[in-house]
Amino acid sequence: MKNGRVGEKGWNFEANDVLANAAKVTIRGTLETIMSNIDCGETRSTISLCLGDPSVYPCFHTTPIAEDAVVSALRSSQYNGYAPVGGVLSARRAIAEYLSHDLPYKLSPDDVFVTVGCGQSTHIALSVLARPGANILLPRPGYSYYEARAAFSGVEVRHFNLIPERNWEVDLDVVESLADEKTIAMVLINPGNPCGNVFTYQHLAKVAETAKKLGILIIADEVYGYLTFGSNPFVPMGVFGSVVPVLTLGSISKRWIVPGWRCGWLVTSDPNGILKETKIVDGIKNYLTISSNPVTFVQGAIPQILGSTGEDFFNKTIDILRQAADICVERIKEIDCITCPCKPEGSMSFMVKLDVSRLVDILDDVDFCCKLAKEESVLIIPGSSVRFKNWLRITFAVEPSSLEDGLQRLKSFCQRHAKK
Ligand SMILES: *Cc1c(COP(=O)(O)O)cnc(C)c1O
User: Fold this and answer.
1) Could you tell me the residue ranges of all domains in the chain?
2) Is residue 299 within 6 Å of ligand 1 at its C-beta?
């Protein structure tokens, strides 16, 4: 043993290094590096254009309907015990109803598993599907949690690109060329994180046909479902559930802006019962038997949260996000070294292209973000962290005045470093 001093042979245990490798690829790791550049003597406040959690801003406060729902569930004394495996029945029923609105078939409560946020849904999906030698197709740029979970589950990752010139549509030819008989699934995030795009019905139909041809299922991460403000409406992948089996992942974290409440779902959108036949449903139940549930009283509040939140709350959030996205697009136009190929139409972040050849003393996107943090106390995630080098990922779910301030600092930084 390397580190042991106790006893003759030292300690027998050591941390699982698969974990360390998995954690390394998440955005959190990059963020720590970038934050370490912030100047301690800086008097201006730090502006983060990289947080996925706008609940810190008063304009993104959740609806009182959701808060009251949790309070009454807690006060009712009905939710002090353990919840059944799969979740509280009334919550499963409410989620099935909520998601069935836009589907050509009806989901049943049995199709729904209540999870500890969409993050746990991701974990469940990958753990259930992981088999020796299996590979999974992930989008690039993407959400690095999937790479981390795949690494931890021992699933090989193969990346397909999203194409900026085509409003971040999936490169389906590449998907076909990557897949083989060991490919189990492809992940699609819609509305897109980090691209801020919203896939059209026609494109999703093509994705479904491709997946069917390849014999793989689709993991549809719809955690930003209905958070759209452009011309494309949100179409759930489950619409194509009779073409190809879909695992729909979601939560209340983003639409209700309560990521700390840790309540989400994993849903089998599969009217033909293929996921039962292939024992994926049993796998999910087995997983949940050895895992833990989200807090019972939050589950108890779900029927009221999903059923009673009015359009006015959703519209207010959408209006702020649209305004924030517009501010970003306008300000970016004033910056020579950054271009925005696609106006964001949904979610809370988007990708812009950085032209380092127009800058002096900036090596690449990572260097750009480190120096930006140091000189302007503005935090942006470099594209490299989402596997798109020399791009930047900007989160616009920021209170508009802070956003303006942050973008102004970004502009000053670029001007100061511009080639003369
Ligand atoms: C935020 C996010 C998640 C995690 O959602 P939680 O409900 O907070 O666990 C999953 N996928 C994507 C794409 C996200 O942006």
Assistant:
1) 26-60+312-416, 64-308
2) no
CATH number of the domain located at residue range(s) 64-308 in this protein: 3.40.640.10
pLDDT in tens, 358-417: 999 999 999 999 999 999 999 999 999 999 999 999 999 999 999 999 999 999 999 999
Q: Which of 222, 234, 251, 396 maximizes ligand 1 atoms within 8 Å of its Cβ, making it the mutation to test the pocket?
A: 251
Looking from the CA of residue 193, the nearest atom of ligand 1 is: 13
The answer to whether 358 and 390 have CB atoms below 8 angstroms apart is no
Whether the Cβ atoms of residue 72 and residue 304 lie closer than 8 Å to each other: yes
Average pLDDT over residues 143-171: 96
Through-space distance between the first and last CA atoms of the chain, rounded to whole angstroms: 58
Residue 251 CA, closest ligand 1 atom number: 7
216 touches 179 (CB < 8 A): yes
- Report which ligand 1 atom has the smallest distance to the Cα of 121: 9
pLDDT tens-digit series, residues 6-28: 667 889 898 988 888 777 777 77
Query: Among 62, 115, 118, which is best to mutate for testing ligand 1, by the most ligand atoms less than 8 A from CB?
Result: 118
CATH 1.10.357.10 fits 26-60+312-416, yes or no: no
CB of 304 closer than 6 angstroms to any ligand 1 atom: no
Q: Is the CB of 196 under 6 A from ligand 1?
A: no
Q: Is the CB of 87 under 6 A from ligand 1?
A: no
Could you give the CA distance from residue 237 to residue 178 in angstroms, rounded to a whole number? Answer: 21
Judge residue 171's burial from the number of C-beta atoms within 10 Å of its C-beta, 0-12 exposed, 13-18 middle, 19 or more buried. Answer: middle
Q: Is the CB of 189 inside a 6 Å radius of any atom of ligand 1?
A: yes
Burial code (b: 16+ CB inside 10 Å, e: under 16) for 21-34 equals: ebeebbbeebbeeb
Distances (CA, A) of 343 to 16, 165, 353, 396: 42, 12, 12, 12
Question: Is 0.85 topped by the overall pTM?
Answer: yes
**Same topology between domain 26-60+312-416 and domain 64-308:** no
Does residue 259 line the site of ligand 1, with CB under 6 A? yes
Q: Give mean pLDDT, residues 346-352.
A: 97
